[in-house]
Every structure is written in C-alpha cells, then in structure tokens.
Specification:
This protein has two helices and ten strands, in the order ααββββββββββ. The N and C termini lie far apart (61 Å). It is globular. A ten-stranded antiparallel beta barrel has the order 1-2-3-4-5-6-7-8-9-10. It has one domain: Lipocalin (Beta Barrel). It has 158 residues and is mainly beta.
Length: 158
C-alpha cells in the first residue's frame, strides 16, 4: 500500500507539476500600476517614462529626458522576478545594468535598494491617484545626502 501511495504521489507531481507562481511572481504582478506611458516637464526638461505590463517574469521600461528638442539622457529599465526575489535593473545611457533589490512594497508604493552603489542607493516609485506617477532616487553623493524626484502624468497617447 505504501508503494502504491508513493507511486501515485510521484505521478501527481509529474503530471500536475509544482506551482509555477512564486511570491516574487505575485509581487511583480502587483506592480502593474506602473505600466503605461508617463510624461512631464521639470525645469525646462521634458521627461517621459514608459513601462510594459508585467509578463514573463519581467517589466521593461525606458526613461528619456529631452531638452531643446534633443535627447539629453536616457535609461533602460527592467524589473524582474528572480530566484533572489524582485530586482530593479537600471542601465543609464546604455551602460551595464545595476541591480536594486526590492526592499518594501505597500499598496502603490515600491522601494528598491542597493547600499553598495555609488548613487543612488534607493529608488522609490509611487502612484498618486490614477494619473500621477512619481519616482525618487536618493542616497549619499560625495559624502552628502542627495536626491532627485520626477512626477509624470499618464499620457493620453496609447
């Protein structure tokens, strides 16, 4: 009888398989509020950031700053569900990506950290209402506290 139950258990695991939904996958899906195209203007610089919806264990994003009709800076962004958990990868100006691990997620606010990075050490996103996305980077720069913040409105373009 024991052998029969063991065989049934193995068959169930073989055909049904383990659950493919991890805590990290669920957390990534919870970041869907970031998806969309976001635009804003700050100190004469037009900024836009766009995020694809969570799919395939990742969210892909891009940020662009435009001044006087020219691209002043850009950044490739990725949030991925990995074995280590949720990680935000920032690649400014196309440089190698820097990882920031999920530190905190509550409602429509998320914090990523990398205490070893030069600057920033913390990246924060939050949604205000349904149409204002905010991002803030903060940490220590040259021994002094530093931060920068952006606010975007949801673009009407699809």
């Amino acid at each position: 009888m024991k052998t029969f139950l063991v065989v049934i258990g193995i068959l169930c695991l073989t055909f049904i398989g383990p659950s493919h939904t991890s805590k990290a996958d669920t957390q990534l899906a919870d970041l869907g509020w970031m998806a969309g195209q976001w635009i804003g203007v700050q100190d004469g610089v037009e900024t836009d950031e766009a995020w694809l919806e969570p799919r395939g264990n990742s969210m892909l994003g891009i940020h662009r700053d435009t001044k006087d009709g020219k691209t002043a800076s850009f950044e490739f962004l990725r949030i991925a569900s990995t074995a280590e958990g949720i990680t935000f990868w920032a690649s400014p100006q196309g440089k190698p990506a820097t990882p920031f691990r999920l530190k905190e997620m509550k409602g429509k606010r998320v914090v990523f950290e990398n205490p070893e990075h030069d600057f920033p050490q913390r990246i924060i996103y939050w949604l205000d209402g349904d149409d204002s996305l905010h991002a803030r980077i903060e940490g220590t720069y040259k021994g002094q506290p530093a931060s920068e913040e952006w606010t975007w409105k949801r673009s009407k373009n699809k």
